[in-house]
Design a protein that fits this description.
This protein is mostly helical. The chain has 15 helices and no strands. 68% of the residues lie in helices and 0% in strands. The radius of gyration is 30 Å and the shape is elongated.
Length: 298
């Protein structure tokens, strides 16, 4: 007849009690760290054993162990969490809220977290610029450990490039939607300029990040990614201008570069309190750049 665990090996219950005790003493440590710490104290226990004990008592995650410590396990005394444990619990609660938000939606928790990081990064990049922003600041703004950012982004360069691409994608989508609304090629270009300026002159963080500043040069690899984004934006104006019925002597490339330069420079002198809206200025620029001289076809 097999003996009960208590009579066959009394130390087994002692090990279980110590695993539970240590798990509440150091609730943020994982099973491997706890097993190593207990082994150093002379207890023969593996990481899988620690994990199984925690699961039997509903303590398999750091979140559950932190709750048990703060509320008292099995009616025991409550223990006040130290600042690091409070911060860890706050992050875990945040992650659980994100998980609840993702439930029933197509997005996974990682996608929601990624979006949150991108928007926080856009805010900091817009405020401090690329050079002065650190991943530690972005992590702090989202309640993450700095190392956790590397799950989503390989480097600060990768993070900035992704934020920049998100901003360019937003304005490109708006330009495409605008173009579909108009049949007349002149009206299409006019409204595209209005749409572009509405985005560029918006004080949003993404708009600030994607603004063209010729005085700033980024690391070579990052600059190539930014240039590719800008090319996708400029290509839309190339197609719009190619569709115009212009005079045969009109230089479409020069007109495109002049127009884009005028759009980009508007943010330097634009004042929201002025008599014209961003959209009105965009429409006026078309009439100035194309409305005089020989550009229009007779």
């Amino acid at each position: 007849m097999a003996k009960s665990p208590s009579s066959a090996d009394p130390s087994r219950l002692d090990i279980e009690a110590r695993v539970l005790e240590y798990g509440l003493e150091q609730p943020t440590l994982g099973q491997f760290s706890v097993a190593q710490a207990l082994q150093a104290q002379g207890l023969k226990v593996s990481a899988s054993t620690v994990r199984n004990i925690w699961k039997r008592h509903g303590l398999e995650t750091s979140y559950l162990r932190l709750l048990a410590k703060s509320k008292g396990m099995n009616g025991g005394d409550k223990t006040e969490l130290n600042p690091d444990e409070q911060s860890h619990l706050k992050r875990e609660r945040r992650n659980r809220k994100l998980a609840a938000k993702a439930k029933g939606q197509d997005e996974a928790v990682s996608a929601l977290r990624r979006e949150e990081v991108l928007l926080a990064a856009a805010r900091i990049f817009a405020d401090k610029g690329y050079a002065e922003t650190s991943l530690r600041e972005v992590a702090a703004a989202t309640g993450m450990q700095p190392a956790s950012l590397y799950y989503h982004f390989a480097s600060k360069e990768d993070l900035f490039a992704t934020v920049h691409h998100l901003g360019i994608s937003r304005v490109n989508q708006a330009l495409d939607a605008t173009a579909l609304q108009h049949d007349d090629p002149w009206r299409r270009l006019e409204e595209a300029c209005a749409t572009a300026l509405k985005f560029q002159l918006n004080p949003s963080d993404l708009a600030v990040v994607v603004r063209v500043d010729p005085g700033i040069r980024y690391p070579a690899r990052l600059q190539r990614r930014i240039d590719a984004d800008r090319a996708s934006y400029e290509d839309r104006f190339r197609r719009l201008i190619d569709e115009l019925p212009l005079h045969r002597k009109a230089d479409r490339t020069l007109l495109r570069l002049t127009l884009l330069g005028a759009l980009n420079w508007t943010r330097v002198w634009y004042r929201p309190s002025g008599p014209l809206s961003a959209e009105d200025i965009g429409r006026q620029l078309i009439r100035i750049v194309f409305g005089y001289g020989f550009q229009r076809a007779p």
